[in-house]
Amino acid sequence: MIKKCLFPAAGYGTRFLPATKSMPKEMMPIVNKPLIEYGVDEAIQAGMTDMCIVTGRGKHSLMDHFDKNYELEHQISGTSKEALLDDIRSVIDSANFTYIRQREMKGLGHAILTGRDLVGDNPFAVVLADDLCINPDQGVLAQMVALYKQFRCSIVAVEEVPADETHKYGVIAGETLTDNLMRVTDMVEKPEQGTAPSNLAIIGRYILTPDIFDIIENTEPGKGGEIQITDALLQQAKGGCVLAYKFKGKRFDCGSVEGFIEATNYCFENVYKG
Ligand code: UTP
């Protein structure tokens, strides 16, 4: 039902400099697989077939990763190393990849709007690949697609974070519908310390209905002078319904050094070896 998944991947990744000076943050490997490939795996597992990637300057390696490398394949053909390409070959065969450039980094809301022509007039998913989500039973996007089938409105994934970390996230307030589902009544991007409406932080998984594009177009720059998806979603929530879903699984903020190391250790033990 939801076939398209948008990957905003144009950001500068300043928290990971100098590594991200010439390498996209999304290409940083957790063990032996780049972050973006984990996100694409999750989207495929949720039944999506069209991966729409918003790129920026210096992000060519993202496109190369989801394409054939004839020279390399010829070189290792018939050797034991060939099996190391099995997963990425299957990803390339399972999905279509399209790309669009965000010419100016005007924020996540603007990056999503940049993907409009790729997504069209359909509900779609958004994955921020630097949030790595792991749930062996059912990926977070698959959980959200199941909810979308029921409610047919935009959904954001949320996680409880310590009160002294809410200023790093978009934070929601909502009316409880079930144990893990809320209807959003308020949303604040990176609230000042002590002013957050709750400790429920939005993480990098969204399902959005296409009316969000017109709303983003009419959204003024907010926090940090950037066009914030949080501000657009609050408008959508006021005019209709946006749900916040406490997902099942683990999430690592791989845009930060600490989260990246945690994810690496976890995936080495539980995914790579396991
Ligand atoms: P972040 O807030 O993590 O920013 O963006 P960043 O630039 O990637 O990293 P830091 O904070 O400087 O270290 C959240 C997501 O939105 C994308 C980023 O690529 C990331 O996936 N993004 C952000 C864009 O695609 N375009 C933008 O203008 C801003």
From TrEMBL:
The keyword Nucleotidyltransferase applies. Belongs to the UDPGP type 2 family. Its EC number is 2.7.7.9. It comes from Enterovibrio gelatinilyticus. PANTHER family: UTP--GLUCOSE-1-PHOSPHATE URIDYLYLTRANSFERASE. Signal peptide: none annotated. It holds the Pfam family NTP_transferase. The gene is galU. May play a role in stationary phase survival. SUPFAM superfamilies: Nucleotide-diphospho-sugar transferases (SSF53448). Keywords: Nucleotidyltransferase, Transferase. It is an enzyme of class 2 (transferase). Gene3D superfamilies: Spore Coat Polysaccharide Biosynthesis Protein SpsA, Chain A. It comes from the Bacteria. Residues 9-265 form the Nucleotidyl transferase domain. This is UTP--glucose-1-phosphate uridylyltransferase. The keyword Nucleotidyltransferase applies. It catalyses: alpha-D-glucose 1-phosphate + UTP + H(+) = UDP-alpha-D-glucose + diphosphate. One of its GO terms (molecular function) is UTP:glucose-1-phosphate uridylyltransferase activity.
